[in-house]
Each structure stands twice: as C-alpha cells, then as structure tokens.
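INFO batch 0412 | record 1 of 1 | parsing
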Amino acid sequence: MSRRYKFTRDAVSAFILLAIFFSCDIVSFEKLGTEISIAETSDYYNSENIEITFSSQMQSQTVERIVALKKGGSRIEAEFIWENEKCLVKPIGGFIPGCAYDFSLSGQAQCADGREYDIAISRKFIFGEKEKIFVLEEFLSPNESGGALELRFNKEIDVASFEMEFKISPYIQTDKEFHSDKKSVRIIPKDKWQINTFYTWTLENIFSADGYKIHKTYSENFMAESAHIRPQLLCVCPAILDENLEAEKATFLEEQDLSALHGKQPFGMIFSKPMDFDSVENALYFEPNIGGVLLKADERKFIYVPYENYKIGQEYLFSVNKSAKDIFGLEMQSQRNFYFSSDNEFLKVIYVGTDSQRLEDGITEISIPDDGTLFLKIKFSSDISPKCYSSIESAIKLSVLFPNSANPAKLNSIRPNGDSVTLSWNNLSKEGIYELKILGGKNYLASDFDEYLEEEKCFYIKTK
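INFO prediction complete | emitting tokens
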C-alpha cells in the first residue's frame, strides 16, 4: 500500500526557494578588503606612491573617480598606476617634502565582476621623514628702533627662496644677514622701525637647502619701540571728491573752515596718528543730524560724505568724541567740537525785465504790441535745478490787478536756461496793471543745492 504525503503551504515555499538557490550561482556575502600604505596613526609618510590594495580586482575608473588628493587644502591632480588588485597614486610631478597632504577614498566603487562596495578612507600626513622636517625654532623681535628681527631654523635655509618669500607689513626696506651655517637670519631696517607701529612678518613657501618645504605658515607681530602719545585731531576742513567717491584721491582744503561748505560738499578730518576706522566712525556726532557715510583716505585722513544738502541758515554742531582711537588703542585727549553754518544761501532774484527795460520797485510802464504779447526774462543768483523746471509755471504768475475788466494774461512759453527763465504771455490789455508774482519756499524754484527763494517777490507792470 502506497503512502501519501501531505505538504503544508510553508513547506512548499521553502522547497521552491531551495530549488532556486541551488539552480543559480552561489550568492556571495564577502566584504571588500582595502588596505592603504599610509598608517592611520602616522603623521608622516615618505614613499613615492600611496599604495591601495584591494581583495578583488576593481574597475579602475570607479576607484579613480572617488580618490581626492589635496595639498595645503587645495585639490591637486593625481596619476594612477594599476597592478592587478593594487593601485598606486601620487601627485603629478611627485610629492614635495615638508608639504601637508590630505588623501581620501570615499564613495562607491565596483569590482571587475560588477559587485559594488561603499568605501570611506581618509588620511592626513606631512610628506617626508619626521627627522628632516623644516621648522622655525625661534624668533627674536627687535627691542629698539634700529634693532634686528632674528629668525632661527632647525636646518640650513635655501637663501633664494627666503629672499623671495619673506614678507613684512607695512613695507620697510631691510637688509638680511645670514649666519655662516645658514640656519639663522637677521632682518635689519635700512633706516629705523617706525615708533608705535605694529609690523607683521609672514613666512611661507620657503625651502631648506635639502629641498624640504617649511611645514606651516608662520606669522607674528612686533613693535620695536613705542611712545604713549595720544592722537590729536589736527584739522577739519572741506574736501573735494570725484563722482566715483575715490577717497584716496580726495583733496583736503586745509586753508578753509567748515563755513565754506556748499551744497552737500564732503568734509575731511586729519589726525596726528594712524587711526582705527571703526572707533572714528563711532565717535562722530551731529546736531541736528547729518546722514552720510565715512570714507578712509589713508591711515590718518578720513572723509565724511553727507547724503543731503546742508540746510540754509542752519547752525550745526559737529563733534568728535575722545573715544576715537589710534591703531594701538590710545584715545584722544579730549572731545573736539565744531560749530558751523554752511555757505548755502537763499536763491535771489537778480533781474526781471524785457530785453531793453528793467522792472523797478513800484509800477513799471511797458509798451506792448497790439496782440498783447509780453516777454519777460528773470535772472536768479544760481542755476535753476532741472528737476524744478516742471514747477516754473506754478511758481511764476502774471495776473490782472486793475481794472477787473482787463484781459487775463495767457502763458504762451517757458524757456529755462541756466540761471535765467524767459517767459512770454499774450492776450494782455493795454492800460492795465498786472502783478508778476514769483513764489518762494522749498516747493517751487531751487538750485541743485536746494537753495530756494526765502520769500515771494512781487513786481507791478502797467501796460501801454
């Protein structure tokens, strides 16, 4: 009697999976082995190439695209040499002894058989032998105005690279004296170090005589000699700037005081010592306020540029607080105050009349043609700003004064030209008295410096 077997649904599923597994290639769960010739704990490396060894053959382009090699923080080009599972990497042109490098292998790479692996390896190192690294061991700052700055190294210096790469700011002419062993150098000013001046020397990209680059950038400050003299404000005066506001090209009108300021002319400040810009800017005070911007012409000279014209007849207070400091942090001895009114004046009417006749006080008789045409020219003390041309019609009025039956004047044309305006009317009656009114105030006629008529002006014309 034959036996019958009954399979559960789970057993059937397991059987199918086993059949698929044994009928296909074996699935590998092997991890990719990756070794780098740079030890993770080493700060120095001295082989011609960085050697990467994989446990399987790799598709080279997938590895090369995830390699990054940097020198001093900047990425550099690398060349690759493949030997089966091994890849050799080095900078084009080779490593430079003493330079700091970053190497990383980070991203997804593929084996020759198509398997993909994520790799994340990085190393930082200085190239060369630790015992040969080139460093600055000591520096001695000058302690007097004619003294020498001395730098001492652990190895013989490549003199040519030192001459080219040693920098000092602010610039000063110096002589360099190298010791007989070439391991130290004295930097001596041709004249003298400036009193109360901070100098900054910088040393980078120099090499030792055996080709090692100095392993980092060195930079230090020193002051050879100091004198505790407080800064003074020597002069406050009008200044001239070009339209590009190039402060370094400004002209300081030192023979003038602030009362000569016109329009929105800038003014300058001259100090006895190099000043800290921010402290000067914060020390300025105006009453009433004058909005503007502070510019630096040089270490001792500054220029304040107002945004708007000075107000006519306004007395201003300009103060520089004692908190203004020189570049060494010394404050001024005391606050300086300056009172001034600008040179801006009210606009004036210089002339009103025809080509042959001037209007005088009282009533001026003028002959007009039968068509009732009248031409008048009005000349002002300054050019009328083009932005006020649209206000001329409302600012200059010719109206009937007597008798009421006289014809009203009709404005025919307006021709502004610099400091004058020529107007023509027609329809005037003969034997009539007309009033010419030129309105004053800020809303009518003004110069480019906001100079306007303080009060309205009236003239009277009897036509005949």
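INFO post-check: Residues 1-8, 11-29 have pLDDT under 50 and may be disordered.
INFO record closed
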